[in-house]
Amino acid sequence: MRPSKRQYDEMRPISFERNVSKHAEGSCLVKFGDTHVLCTASLEEKVPGWLRNSGRGWVTAEYGMLPRATGDRMRREAATGRQGGRTLEIQRLIGRSLRAVVDLQALGEMQITIDCDVLQADGGTRTASITGAWVALHDCLRWMEARQMTSVSKVLKDHVAAISCGIHGGHAVIDLDYEEDSSAGTDANFVMTGKGGMVEIQATAEGIPFTQEEFDALIALARKGIARLVNLQQLAVA
User: CA–CA separation, 55 vs 189, rounded Å?
Assistant: First the structure.
């Protein structure tokens, strides 16, 4: 039995609360159990210099954790004068994941920045961020569509969502919380589209190498979890 008493293929309760920010063009408070992330989408009618006059837009992301998102207070990265390597890696992952399902030519010369701020962390902050960021991005595009700036169906080609899986206690399990994540023999994150395409896989053995059979079991769990997340995204934006 898992520490959370969940079944091996059982995810934490998932929820999306939209329009939680008064000023952002799109926003979503996503919850994967006790991991809560505020995702906001901001539109700028300009693009980075290297994209000027290209006719293409850009989607990017920034990620951060509030000081008391974890058990002990963390210093704000702004106080140290630089972002940490983990922060940079995660925000690049979020940006890549979103761009995988966006037609940048259809977006036109505009930039959408998704800010993912972790309010409370209990494992899986990057997967929750990616999944909630898609909802915020969708609503930003819907805001633009209402002003005849673009069309959601033209810009957004598919859903994208992410889930963690791992080997804990000798079993493949899905959606690890912090207690499982910190003691798992293998930890993996899967980013997939609604059509089942793979965007990114991050998998690491924490001691004993994992086998092909275990990896296949993780992918099978991930596909099942992503399908559920995509269904919840569809219900949220319907």
Answer: 33
CA distance 39 to 25: 11
pLDDT surpassing 80 at residue 155: yes
Q: At what angle do helices 212-237 and 125-146 cross, to 10 degrees?
A: 30
Is 64 annotated to bind a ligand? Reply is no
pTM score above 0.90: yes
Write the DSSP symbol of residue 216: H
125 is in an annotated binding site: yes
Is 86 labelled a binding residue? Answer: yes
pLDDT in tens, 81-132: 889 999 999 999 999 999 999 999 999 999 999 999 999 999 999 999 999 9
Contacts of 84 (CB under 8 A, 6+ apart): 77
Q: 193, 199 in Cβ contact below 8 A?
A: yes
Per-residue pLDDT tens for 168-208? Answer: 999 999 999 999 999 999 999 999 999 999 999 999 998 89
For residue 205, give Cα distances in angstroms to 35, 120, 161, 186, 191: 23, 26, 23, 4, 18
What phi-psi label fits residue 93: left (phi over 0), alpha (psi between -120 and 50 degrees) or beta?
A: alpha
Cα distance between residue 87 and residue 77, in whole Å: 9
Q: Which residues fall within 8 angstroms of residue 195, CB to CB, at 6 or more apart?
A: 158
